[in-house]
Design brief:
By secondary structure, this protein is mainly alpha-helical. It folds into three domains: about 100 residues, Cytochrome Bc1 Complex, Chain D, domain 2, CATH 1.10.760.10; about 60 residues; about 160 residues, no CATH class. About 60% of the residues lie in helices and about 5% in strands.
């Protein structure tokens, strides 16, 4: 016997069952895609340095604020055309993975790409969704807080530079060394520097984004390329007997005083700080960064000149002979034949230590500073 074809009512029931099943699967899938942990998302935003460019309180920065973003209509430019989109999970995923695809009108497309998995994207979306639109009072409070943070940053930078120069002045330095001894003075000096740096970092993170100029995108590579050299200068300068350091003036009279990093410059640590500041000044056009790095650059340059003047007054001809064999500007003594590059004196250990510190800085920069170091 030939099997009879299913009756229309049977086919309809099968179609209905298939549709229900498909609807259920799609529903489960959509809920899975929409899942996510806001706490984990906030951690990802901080780790990737997103809060350096996107505020969480509605205050203006280089990128759109994340508060009130989720579910809002956004006017964006896509492939040269302006269109309106809804900031949903798909929008956030696209913004993270291909930020130049949809650029919010009024902002520049300078955000780096993030290769995040679906779970991480969902976590970030939930964190952004959790942020509600700010009330007018909240916005006013945020503006007041931002202004206070910028003022605190300026004071911290002034503290950092001013007290360094004060403690380095010959009359103050002599009195403190006489009272505290060289070791005690070095401890006080280090404490002052540490307090200044902590104040700068904390107030920098709280200060608002105020754009002074927009550096070319290629300039973002300058800190990445310059910092290995800057860190090596600092590591070698601090770990090698240094005629310019506190209590080590007698080193200038030693026959092998000019060795290792000092064949490159007699102020390696300060040159490292100056290089750090210059590279970041070119890569950052915002007011808070300019305040910090101008302060560091000013301190580094004036510090080198101040140390030379103080050592000349203390050591006389010994320092003159030392400066004749070295240079303030890196590689100047080598270029003029007054010194010969001594890589062996720098040592493989210092180079490896500097490399380790550089990698550590790359991985903690977003957490400590609030911005990713990568272009």
């Amino acid at each position: 016997m030939r099997a009879r074809a299913p009756r229309p009512s049977c086919l309809a029931r099968l179609a209905f069952a298939f549709a229900v099943t498909l609807f259920f699967v799609l529903g489960v899938t959509s809920r899975a895609l929409a899942a996510g942990d806001a706490t984990k998302g906030s951690a990802i935003l901080a780790r990737k340095g997103c809060t350096g460019c996107h505020s969480m309180d509605g205050s203006p920065r280089v990128g759109p604020s994340l508060r009130g973003l989720y579910g809002a209509n956004r006017t964006v430019t896509t492939a040269g055309l302006t269109r309106d989109v809804v900031a949903d999970d798909a929008y956030i995923a696209r913004a993270l993975r291909d930020p130049d695809a949809d650029v919010v009108v009024g902002f520049r497309g300078t955000m780096p790409r993030f290769d995040l998995g679906d779970d991480d994207v969902a976590h970030v979306a939930r964190a952004i969704e959790q942020l509600s639109a700010p009330a007018p009072a909240t916005t006013a409070a945020a503006a007041s807080s931002s202004s206070s943070a910028m003022g605190m940053l300026s004071l911290s930078a002034a503290w950092f530079v001013g007290l360094h120069l004060l403690l380095s002045s010959i009359p103050v330095r002599r009195r403190l060394i006489g009272a505290l001894k060289p070791g005690g003075f070095a401890l006080v000096y280090s404490l002052v520097a540490t307090l200044g740096l902590v104040g700068i970092v904390l107030s920098f993170r709280a200060a608002p984004y105020v754009e002074v100029w927009l550096p070319p995108r290629a300039f973002r590579w300058l800190p990445v390329l310059a910092m290995p050299i800057a860190i090596l200068f600092m590591v070698a300068g601090f770990s090698t007997p240094n005629a310019a350091s506190v209590g080590q003036g007698s080193v200038a009279a030693e026959e092998d005083a000019v060795r290792g990093i000092f064949t490159i410059t007699r102020h390696p640590a300060l040159c490292g700080f100056a290089l750090w500041a210059l590279a970041h000044l070119f890569a950052n056009g915002e007011l808070r960064a300019i305040i910090v790095f101008v302060a560091i650059l000013t301190l580094a340059i004036t510090g080198m000149a101040h140390i030379d003047r103080r050592r000349a007054a203390e050591l006389g001809d010994t320092w003159v002979q030392y400066t004749n064999r070295t240079s303030l500007l890196p590689f100047a003594a080598i270029a003029t034949g007054r010194a010969k590059l001594d890589l062996r004196g720098i040592g493989l250990f210092r180079i490896l230590a500097a490399a380790f510190l550089y990698v550590a800085v790359l991985h903690t920069h977003a957490l400590l500073i609030g911005a990713s170091p990568m272009p």
